[in-house]
Amino acid sequence: MHEMSIALAIVDQVEITARPAGARAVSSVRVQVGELAGVVPDALAFSFELACTETVLEGAELVMEPVTARARCGPCAHTWAAGMPPQLSCPVCGGTRTELLSGRELQIVSVSWHDAPSAVPTHQER
Amino acid sequence: MCRVVDLQQAVLAKNDACARALREDLAARGTAVVNLLSSPGSGKTALLERELTLARHRGVPVAALTADLATENDARRLARSGVPVKQVLTDGLCHLEAGMLGGHLDGWLPPDTRLLFIENVGNLVCPASYDLGETLRVALASVTEGEDKPLKYPTAFGLAHLVVVTKSDIAEAVGFDEAAFRANVERINPGVEIVCTSARRGEGDGALLDRALAARDGAPVHTPVMARQHHPHHEPASVVDPASVTDSLAKSGS
């Protein structure tokens, strides 16, 4: 199960971005997961929760956006949903010069976080 | 204050950057990497043993890294070929990542090596997601595994530059339908070459070595449909630029 490695990579990248920007707590991470990315969403959700422990992402929600695999035939321009297992030679003309339009995404789209509170003046400063 | 920041970063950007650097470093010294993927027991080691031995007889400098969760059995078998071999123990990890390789190569890989074969952990799921800086990715399936193996593991076979069938000497005994296997591969990876081999009988000896050497010397390598999607996953610009984060923070502050 490589979803733990994937989850750790997500946490690592979010931390690198969020900490220097002053994030106190990351509340959610939005990720696109393509049908052909080779990632099992349930396993990733499970691993993500563990990977977030004792980081600025502790308790963060992982929002996964599934992306359907779609393909287009170069010669005949037919476009189709590849399905699973994927059909990547053209179902109409049998052509092999296929372009994959979507389905391989494994992408962090956005991150939501709460900023650290600005320094509150002490009694003496007031 | 709550902020939503657009990141648009490939999850595997770090591995991909590491793999790219490794590919470039090795290419600068004339070495190309061949990444072998298959399920456990499909015959990667037996095939590799023959190809390494053949390379040594032909005077082609090659080396091999072999990865397993435990034991050095495969390194011992491959070392019989007489070429430099090293065992990588993953301590339970189900795949290799590009960042794990550098430490194994430093001070070990002979500088004149033309091909570095990497026998990945026996697993058709996880290794498929990780570029190891290879020039040639090879997916293997033995005739005992069934004709539909490529359909069951579409990422592993769909991203391969070459597909190798092993144990062809027992194809008839196990009722392997080669035409059906070829049709299944063609469905997910149209145009990829499929070669049949038997390490026991010597069928297809040199097929892997010849194709790897050609790729190393710049011959065109098959581009799988699955690798053709224009995607940030494989672009160098996906590492975070703190300035761009600051910009998007300014735009998205709420």
Automatic annotation (TrEMBL), chain A:
Keyword annotations of the record: Metal-binding, Nickel, Zinc
GO biological process, one term: protein maturation
A molecular function (GO) term: nickel cation binding
Keyword Zinc: yes
Domain of life: Bacteria
Binding residues annotated for Ni(2+), in chain numbering: 2
Coiled-coil parts of chain: none
Binding site for Zn(2+): 73, 76, 90, 93
Pfam assignment, any one: HypA
InterPro entries documented for this protein: Hydgase_Ni_incorp_HypA/HybF_CS, HypA/HybF
Function field: Involved in the maturation of [NiFe] hydrogenases. Required for nickel insertion into the metal center of the hydrogenase.
Family per record: Belongs to the HypA/HybF family.
PANTHER family: HYDROGENASE MATURATION FACTOR HYPA
Name of the protein this chain belongs to: Hydrogenase maturation factor HypA
Automatic annotation (TrEMBL), chain B:
Keyword check for GTP-binding: yes
Annotated keywords: GTP-binding, Hydrolase, Metal-binding, Nickel, Nucleotide-binding, Zinc
Keyword hit for Nucleotide-binding: yes
Composition skew (Polar residues), residue ranges: 245-254
Chain segments carrying region Disordered: 227-254
Ranges for domain CobW/HypB/UreG nucleotide-binding: 33-195
Domain of life, source organism: Bacteria
One GO-annotated biological process of the protein: protein maturation
InterPro entries membership: CobW/HypB/UreG_nucleotide-bd (IPR003495), Hyd_mat_HypB (IPR004392), P-loop_NTPase (IPR027417)
Pfam families to which the protein is assigned, alphabetical: cobW
Transmembrane segments: none
Single GO MF annotation: zinc ion binding
Family: Belongs to the SIMIBI class G3E GTPase family. HypB/HupM subfamily.
Protein name: Ni/Fe hydrogenase formation protein
